[in-house]
Amino acid sequence: QVQLVESGGGLVQAEGSLSLSCAASGGSFSSYTLSWFRQVPGKEREFVSSIKSGRPYYADSVKGRFIISRDNAKNTMSLQMNRLKPEDTAVYYCAAGRPILSSLRTENAYYYWGQGTQVTVSS
After folding, report:
1. Mind listing the pLDDT tens digit for each residue in 11-30?
2. Distance of CA 107 to the CA centre of its chain
3. Alpha-carbon distance 34 to 90, whole Å?
């Protein structure tokens, strides 16, 4: 059983930056693919970024602006978000699982989820 806790959300102006963190406990952290998803009210949760076997993957909407990283020694994952836009406003969730590459962007491919952290970008 893996427990995930996100932190680092908040309010930022457009073009600003925020860094999210996901701390994990329990389980074999290094063996899981870790990902970030986000969700706005009334919409489905959407894939943001993933790090699988050391390789990063990004949604087109955040490519070039967000950077994902993980530190297996500290059981943490981070998402550095730069040049934020109002449309990045959402609750951000970290997730852990063992999806195959074709299922990386599919939320039901993940076993464990954090409680989410709110990111609000003002225009």
Report:
1. 999 999 999 999 999 878 88
2. 12
3. 19
